[in-house]
## 1
Amino acid sequence: MADNDFDIKYVANLARIALSPEEEARLGAQLGDILGYVKKLEELDVTGVEPMAHAVPLANVFRADEVQPSIPQQDALANAPKQVNGLFVVPKIVE
Amino acid sequence: MLHELTLSGLTAKLAAKEVSSREAMQACIDRIDAVDDQVNAFMSIDRDNALGQADAADVALAKGATHAGQPLLGVPVSLKDLFCAKGQPANCSSRILGDFRSPYDGTVVRKLRDAGAVLFGRLNMDEFAMGSSTENSAFGRTNNPWDLERVPGGSSGGSAAAVAAQECFGSIGTDTGGSIRQPAALCGCVGLKPTYGRVSRYGVVAFASSLDQVGPLTRDVRDSATLLGAIAGHDPHDSTSVPTEVPDYVAELGGDLKGTKLGLPREFLIDGIDPEVRAAFDAAVKQCEALGAEIHEVSMPHTEYGVATYYIVATAEASANLARFDGIRYGDRVDGDDLFSLYCNTRGQGFGEEVKRRIILGTYVLSSGYYDAFYLRAQKVRTLIKHDFEQAFETVDALITPTVPAPAFKAGEKMDDPLQMYLSDVFTISCNLAGTCGISLPCGFTSEPKLPIGLQLLGKPFGESRLLQIANAYEQATPWHTERAVL
């Protein structure tokens, strides 16, 4: 069962993933099948059922507001694709 | 041979000064040199670093340090490629991380070091833990030590194969929908998924944060208890880790199954289970009965919705978690005309196909107009699945099921049909959705070819100790855990 609403180009764009035309065709078809399968959940009546985001009922986990040691700047930058003067280099965003 | 020992067998010899940690580490390296060309469980090994840690353990042992204080002192243990260990790679078997080196030790790594373990090697996995066969690794597949034409399962396939091939004395993996238990079943070892919140996820690259748990893969149940004891516990760095006491899992092993109530979920024993798997499972249930367990049939009516629920919840969370791989702060960057195309190019070229498929699916189910129909509905069904477990645990101590409906399949068999691959996780997935604990242990073999079959036990939240007791009682009454793959 294919899902006709599914626009692979649009969603890949939202996800910031460039796909080749072959990938678009293949992934689009596979995702259509998968969405057809997960629609199985429509069989169930979920009226009045609380959604569950988490298995453990922990809420508002706080720690004391104290200064802790952190990773030195050089270590934090060590994996940067590009860096200059202790800063990450990124493309220009604002014209 | 040294590499054939269990973890507890090795610690006994280390304590008695019959062998050194260096000899144990060297035995693993020699074994890897001899068989890993065939198995391909390891992506890399930092040999000098490993032998240096072993020498340090030998110094500590010579100075009188004991396994009572440090239960893993001098024991070589390997890590799935998504744990952060300072100065070591953490590629998650993906190209997108390039030559990334972790700037810090994650909590599990730190705890293992504190317990004296010699941490070595990066174990192959499905890219970002997404898959059930380890075929989704960007660095080649891992082969099942029992039949090299077949998959080891996944996503912790390298972790399971390395234990089965006796290349390490135990390994650490992660389980989001079965990624420890399923490969343990297919490779014939013991794999434990602790309760959500039992083990810290700090320093573990996240796939689906409400489902991921860290756990051990070992040759027997006792070793599983030892490793769990070392890694479990509350961690201020992970707000979802739970502040409850960690029992002495090893000390609590023992006893028979008299009075233990095991639940047989009717909905798990459906058509489509391989006949040899079914026969081995039925024999295992009989064996538990013979050991004193009471078997009760229970109903878990929402079982058939587990896979669909999982593939909405897990991919939604993954789409958010993997947004961090954008080519800005770490990993490989593929430039473009502007920032937008840099993101798209980096992620388009860096991620493999299964990861792209899941991120796109997760993005879709969270997107405007589809959130209620997919994501919110799945969260509600997740509640129903959790209720199934709560109801079952009102009458039984644990559930008993096959781990996987079939033994290891041939490499390539399911790669073109992701939905079929997903459906092979049907028995393991609901445990993660409910957030409870589960273990897989060997319960037999198919005849031709000889392939391991896994028995799954699912326990109450934070009921790992009880689960390990039951698993231990079954294991000690059966020969399966003593069988080794011939390589």
## 2
Amino acid sequence: MSNRRPYVRPMDNWWMRDPFFVRYMAREFTAVFVAAYAVVLLFGLVRLSQGEAAFNGWLQYLKTPWMLVFHVIVLATFIYHTWSWFSIMPKTMPIMFVGGKRVQPGTITGTGIAAAVVACLAVLVIVKGMHP
Amino acid sequence: MADTEKIIEIQVLRYRPEQDKEPVLQSYKVPFTDDMSVLQGLQYIKDYLDGTVSFRWSCRMAICGSCGMMIDGKPKLSCKTFLREYYPAGLRVEALAHFPIERDLMISVEDFVTKLESIKPYIIPKEPRTLEQGEYLQTPQQRDMYEQFSSCINCMLCYSACPQYGLNKEFIGPAILALLHRYNADSRDGGQAERLNSLGHTDEGFWGCTAVTYCSEVCPKGVDPANAINQNKMNSAINYFTRFVAPGGADK
């Protein structure tokens, strides 16, 4: 008869055991804000389909103090979302070679973040162009 | 020119199945010098303080993969971690997380070994060759595609770093999926389909990973299991959507 009695430890609160897990959960949680903002934009699209008055009403609503606070929070989470996902982008890419040399993780992350910054600036320039 | 002897407190998570209902911490005061590893601290305990403390070790130089344990909550090789880093606060050593504790610092490796065998961790030749045909040739770049993933020493630190494995024992886990990729990415290998269809492309395979990426952080050999797993997801997704139209498809 075996005297073995392997002990299985519980997984309660596993994500608080290491700061690495907390950052991971924070990264995953930012997706909730991304989804929430997608709903806000979809709602705007619905109002647009209902005519100019409805759309302008939606625009006015976005300028209320609570919605401005909401935008600041969403902006902060989006920045973290962008940074944290591009940080793990090198993990999701196959091994690549450019000119016989392996592309380094920092290059992949840097390229991703640079692309995000350029896209944001492009949007700002276009919007500014429409409202001189 | 011996160092002045310093004393460090090592707390060991004890579990003796014949007497302990659950693991308990036991504290030892260990004299140490700056060149002593945590493993040497444990060996001191076993030789001079308490012969009943159980732990696994072999090579003392980070190649056998036997002495992995949680050191102050982080999965590390105890031979590659030094006591001086924890002085004067002391340290706590526990059996590797997410595995059942067999006794003290020793875990049960059954699940790991069974899964390791399941991925066929050896080269399955594309076509049989005779000795006269010579060796299988490979360019340096072809070798680079799998070399880092072949550095795995089966120490299982990455499993202790992987909450997905802790939560779901069906998940094949970081090291073994990295080895699956290591053989699949080898230009001499012809076993891709059998490894991917039954294992890699499943929920227990690549898709059980949620890219926590702590596995790559704790790996003592720079294997980067998170990369081995996640770079397969794109192909896996394409396979999922094309299997109904592609001749042979996924059910080959």
## 3
Amino acid sequence: MTEFTPFASAIGGTMIGLSAALLLWSHGKIAGISGIVGGLLGRPRAGDTSWRVSFVAGLVLTGVVASLLSPGSMQVGIERTVGALAVAGLLVGFGTRLGSGCTSGHGVCGISRLSVRSVIATLLFTVFGAAVVYVVQHVLGGRL
Amino acid sequence: MKSAAVKSQLFAFAAGSLFAIGLVVSGMTQPAKVIGFLDVFGSWDPSLIVVMAAAILTYTPLFWRISGRSMPLFAAQYLIPTKRSIDTRLVLGAAVFGVGWGLAGVCPGPALVSSGSGAPYMLIFTTCMLLGMLLHAAFESLVARTQNARGDSAVSDP
């Protein structure tokens, strides 16, 4: 469906690793996106919100600039019904908070810290993701 | 004092921005590429594993070096998870997240970055993702309240 882009992936991945190191060095925090955003919802702790807001602002504003400079870099490339997207969003939001992390917190930062919890979580969400994609692409014919 | 507070926010903003650029450069802001990675029985696109490997290889030595310092630039201490147990929440949460990830090809980082494009696909997903996080916060406070209630009654019982 999409082409393997090893060079761009290696450069981008290195930047993600550097970003996580920058956040640890400056604020002493783990760069897990679901944790950073989740800490702003519900009942945020006083004095623990401003760095989260700044980090998320960096994510979103850079996204706005990138989509203006290079619209192709944000191409969706697949189609999903509104219902499927809503269910997917709810599951990702609830699941990442229940499991204490997502692709960045468990996948990148946790594995780097040699956390067994994170290795297990990463294996689990990858296997479940692949299983769902198998069903959608090869049983339902890519329509959802 | 004031300039340190501004500087601290600039560092957090820069980290978020660099994270976003990394996701954009690596193509992870395109759901089709994520689905391509998860589609191991189709025309597999291994890009995501290269992104993760490069991020891990970069972060690992820096993590150990930085966390060995006495304290961060703008905080009193390093906040690094200490939990070790493999509990139901971890397993269930990871599985639920995986299902949602496979349905849409979007995880939290790319969701926020790509929402900047204004694409309805991303806006719908991200709104519901934030809603899911709020639901989780409500769920946890409900669990805590029930446990407290139970604890109280146990104490008051003769």
## 4
Amino acid sequence: MKSAQVSQLKREEERKRDAAFDPAQRWQHIQQTITWAEANLPPHLRRNRPRTRGPEKRRPSIVPPHE
Amino acid sequence: MNVDAMLLVLNEEQVDYLLIGGMNFLIRHLPELTFDVDIWARDEEENLRRLNRALRRLGAQWGRTEAEWRPVPEDPGWLQLQTIFCLTTDHGALDVFREVRGLEGRYAECKARRVRTETAAGVACPCLSDRDMLACQEALPPSEQKTRRMEVLREAIRRSEAK
């Protein structure tokens, strides 16, 4: 199958699926995907890890050091 | 979309597959806007039978036309109709590829290069390697290529080769 035909097939498949999806269910799946994606980011991009905590580290502390 | 549920069922049914596309890129590199799971299934009769069992457990639906959209049948013969299927499932959108552009006829060697990883929930996930992910992108017409993804993949390959 030629590349253009594959592209056409993929587009047509996506079009059919979009038409078949229940919009409410689709929206629910999108929300779930965002939650899942956050939990599955590569380690260096996850929240609350030392490498991603730069701005927090730079924030001045209320308590002066050594007190 | 419950990606873990989809992968878990594929694993339980012992489907021979590789995770490709945006979810592969998201797990291994950077977040990318993607709303479906893309898998490349080994194109072999017994594997397609296992895949069909998994799809039925996932509540997959497909149709040749919108009017024929319905749960996938018990007979896996429909999987021979074409090489790409975009399905709905109870857990979200799932794209099944029997052939992948740029990697035609090379499933076995791509599988040998796969990266075994796990999702955050601990579900095993066989991922297409960066080199093969890049080959897929390079085989696409320029208008369909994801340039940012390609840059990141090239950089990841360069870094792994420098080690």
